Amino acid sequence: MIRKWKPELFKFENGRAKGKHNYKLLSYNILAQDLLVEHLQLYYGIDNKMLRWQNRLKILKDEIGIIAPDIMCLQEMQYDHLKDLVNQIGIAKQNSRLEYVFKKKTGIRSDGCAIIYDKNKFKLIEEKNVEYYTDNVLTLNRENIAIMAKFQPLEDNSSTFVVATTHLLYNPRREDIRISQINKLIQEIIAFSHTPQSTHMKNRLPIILTGDFNFTPDTKAFELLTGLRKPKLRTQNSEDVQSVGDFFQLDAIDFGMANCASTYQDQWITVDYILTSKSNRDKKSIQINSKYKLPSTDQCWRCGKIPNKFVGSDHFSLAIQFSIV
Fold first, then answer.
1. So which residues are the signal peptide here (predicted)?
2. Is the pTM of the predicted complex or chain greater than 0.90?
């Protein structure tokens, strides 16, 4: 399967020029091996050797090497496979120094989320883990998590930005839980993205949010995530509540959602997204320069069940090229 980069047409808002420095970011649910083994029936008909971790690792390394990202947001990253994956990517990605932050799911699961970054290009300013599990809240009783990091490009120390990644509950019947998880995630991102100079909602760092959200674009959860529905936030004053709708919105990057797919769940669908904070007048923003197109559903059918010899996971990766402007 051949996937291509699609350049974006620039909209020079507020007199901004094209960004000087271009970076690549990847988001990928890489399929934890423990989960694959636990749910082996989902992969019936796939050649067994394509399901072995060492074979998948090589394919994942090759896939990621083709994209050559500077920042990688990984979901279903099994804790005891993380160093091996980072080493393999590091060998393929010459002239880089890879570091990572990782958060395992709460409870007994062995996987979690990781953000891997090139230390030759970014300085990690701060990191924060988010656990959705909350005592005595019925819709926040699952083990899913998120991880957030603030990065400063070494080429431009005035362009600090936030990267966050998450993996929400799968259960198709429990959108109520995913909505509660999104509400909590938005609260955490708002707090984490404030600039050091101010805690006002307007004064936020640019944000890139990625993940496997386990919902499609036609759901209430997606509307909540993209600001079409107002989140229910616990705040200390009414001014903050109003500010959420006015100043915190995320744009989902369109990789071809109408006829493309990121995974198979009884049918080929999209549940993985990269989102960016909306442009804020007179503030730094994320400029998307190019996006790595998802395969069409026709291409997915021709590709066959995944993982296979071309794709190392049961999801397809997402990737963007971006600048801070």
1. none
2. yes
Residue 198 CA to residue 136 CA, distance in Å, equals 33
- Judge whether 210 and 27 are in contact, CB under 8 Å: yes
Residue of 62, 96, 103 lying closest to 79 (CA atoms)? 103
Q: Name the residue type at position 317.
A: S
Residue 157: exposed, middle, or buried by beta-carbon count in 10 A (0-12, 13-18, 19+)?
A: exposed
Helix residue spans in 129-272 (DSSP H): 175-192, 220-225, 238-247
Q: Please, are residues 164 and 204 in contact by the beta-carbon 8 Å criterion? A: no
Judge contact between 75 and 103, C-beta under 8 A.
no
8 Å CB contact between 294 and 262? yes
Instruction: List domains and CATH numbers for the chain.
Output: 5-10+22-324 (3.60.10.10)
Strand pairing report for 161-167 and 207-212? parallel
**Digit-coded pLDDT (tens) for 35-69:** 999 999 999 999 999 999 999 999 999 999 999 99
Nearest to 71 by CA among 104, 93, 103: 93
Q: Which residues of 80-93 are buried (b: 16+ CB within 10 A; e: fewer)?
A: ebbeebbebbeeeb
d(Cα 142, Cα 245) in Å, to the nearest integer?
27
Given a contact cutoff of 8 angstroms between Cβ atoms, the answer to whether 314 and 306 are in contact is yes
